[in-house]
Amino acid sequence: MTIKDTPEEWEIRATDTPFVGNKTSVRTDDVVMPDGTVVGRDYQVHPGSVAVLALDEADRVLVLRQYRHPVRHKLWEIPAGLLDVPGENPLHAAQRELYEEAHVKAEDWRVLTDVYTTPGGCDEAVRIFLARDLSEAEGERFAVEEEEADMELDRVPVGDLARGVLAGELHNNCLVVGVLSLIAARSGDGLDALRPAQAPWPARPFEA
User: Fold this and answer.
1) Residue 99's closest CA among 48, 50, 47?
2) What Gene Ontology terms describe where this protein resides (cellular component) (predicted)?
3) 0.85 exceeded by the pTM?
4) 154 near 58, Cβ under 8 Å?
5) Which end of the chain has fewer CB atoms < 10 Å from its terminal CB, N or C?
6) Overall CATH class of domain 49-193
7) Please, are residues 58 and 13 in contact by the beta-carbon 8 Å criterion?
8) What gap in Å lies between CA 155 and CA 87, rounded to an integer?
9) What is the longest distance spanned by two Cα atoms in the chain?
C-alpha cells in the first residue's frame, strides 16, 4: 500500500461565514457523513503561508524570536509569512519574507516540505523552503512594526535546535517541522535530492 494523502471532498449541504477578519475568516459547513447524517464543522479559512529554513555555511539556522499573543509566548521561529495575494508564487513570497524579516538573500532554494498546520480546525497550508548560500541583502532594511518591532534575530546550530525540539523547549510548527525534515533529508537521499523551488503545490496552486 502506498502511504500518500489523497484529495477528497464530502458533500456540503449548507455553508455560512459567521466571522470575517483582516486576513482569515471562520466558516461553518454542514457536511454529509458516510452514514448519511449531517454534521456541522467549524474551521478557520486561511490564505496559506510560506516559511524559510535558511541554512548558513556554518550549519546554523537563521531564527527569529517573536511574541505570539494567542499562546502567550515568545517563540523561536524561522522566517515566515502569509500568501497575501491569491495565486502568488510561494518562492517569491518566501524570498520576500527572508528579506523583510532578516535582510538576507539566498542563491539556492529548494522545497523542504509541505504541511497542513492544523487540519482539524484550519485549512492553512504551509510550504517550507530550504534556503542556502546566504548573504546580506542589498538596500535599506524593511521597516518593522507591531510585534515585529520587538523581534530578535540569531543563528543557531541545527543540532541545538533539534535538541530543543525533542526536549519540548521549541514549539513553533514551522521550526519543528523544518529542522526535523532537514535532518531526515540529510539521512536519506541528501539535500540536493529535494524538490525544486518551483515544484507544484496542489494545496495552493500558483503560476511560475
Assistant:
1) 50
2) cytosol
3) yes
4) no
5) N
6) alpha beta
7) no
8) 32
9) 60
Domain range summary for the chain, segments of one domain joined by +: 12-44, 49-193
Q: What is the pLDDT of residues 179-191, one digit of tens each?
A: 999 999 999 999 9
Q: Which distant-in-sequence residues (6+ apart) come within 8 Å of 120 by Cβ? A: none
Closest C-alpha to 99, from 158, 150, 160, 143:
143
pLDDT along the chain (208 residues), means of 10: 93 96 95 97 96 98 96 97 90 96 96 97 97 90 63 96 98 98 97 97 91
Tell me the three cell numbers of residue 107: 542563491
d(CA 78, CA 172): 8
Q: Regarding beta strands 60-68 and 49-54, do their DSSP bridges make them parallel or antiparallel, or are they unpaired?
A: unpaired
Q: Among this protein's residues, is 148 annotated catalytic?
A: yes
Distance between CA atoms of 151 and 26, rounded to whole angstroms? 29
How far is residue 106's CA from residue 169's CA, in Å, rounded to a whole number? 28
CA dihedral over 177, 179, 183, 185, signed as positive or negative = positive
